[in-house]
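Morning, I've got a small favour to ask if you have a moment. You're getting the sequence in one-letter code plus the fold written as tokens. Thanks so much in advance, here it is:

===
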Amino acid sequence: MSPESTGQNEHNLTVYRRGFRTWRGNRPFWAGLFTILGGVPIAYFPYADLHLGNMTLAMSTTAGAGSLIIGVLLITLGLTMWFHSIVRVFAGVAAILLALISIPVANIGGFVIGFLLALIGGALSISWAPGEPEADDEAPQDAALSPDEQRPESGSAEGALHGAAVPQQPAGDHDTAFGHDGGTHRAG
């Protein structure tokens, strides 16, 4: 390799990184990640064994099946947030409800760790909204208008609404003296 070359695989890593950033930006990525990370301790702790020297401490409780179900559902909801973001509000509400249910059922919500992570993930999922693409073609729209129709170029908020036009209702062939249109509605 020559000293001027930047490396063989640098381009591929940049392409993958940018592709991942684009994928991550089009969905509630952090909400799904927090929800998945919240489901793991809720499902894991009831089946974990802690070894202290020669002594084994088992965390298993009678609610182990309930903990496993809640943890698996939280992981599934996190994946749903990633791959089917249209149901993000439902998944967020379900994640919050499962996190609240995990407090009495699953060792105080996976020792509060899983509870807090699932709660944050559900709240992020509910509050996430897809971004609007930037409008790069506003200048050509203003150029197509006549000089008296163009919007003023002021920086205030009032200037943005100054040129807004209200559509005019077409004059119909109805008689306003009687107050009815022969059985038809004016809107349609």
